[in-house]
Amino acid sequence: MDERKAPGTMPPEKKLLRALAGLETEGVPVWMMRQAGRYLPEYRKVRADAGSFLDLCYTPELAEEVTLQPIRRYGFDAAILFSDILVVPDALGQKVAFKEGEGPVLEPITDEAGLAALGSPARVTEHLRPVYETVSRLSNSLPREVTLIGFAGAPWTVATYMVGGRGSPDQAAAKLWAYRAPDEFQKLIDILVEATVEHLSAQVEAGAEVVQIFDTWAGSLPELSFERFALRPVKAIRELLQARFPGLPVIAFPRGAGAMAARYFRETGVRGLSLDTGVSPGWARDNLQQLGCLQGNLDPLLLVAGGDEMRRQARHILETLGNGPFIFNLGHGIVPQTPPEHVGELVKLVQDWRP
Ligand code: CP3
Question: What's the 9 CA to ligand 1 centre distance in angstroms?
Answer without folding.
Answer: 34
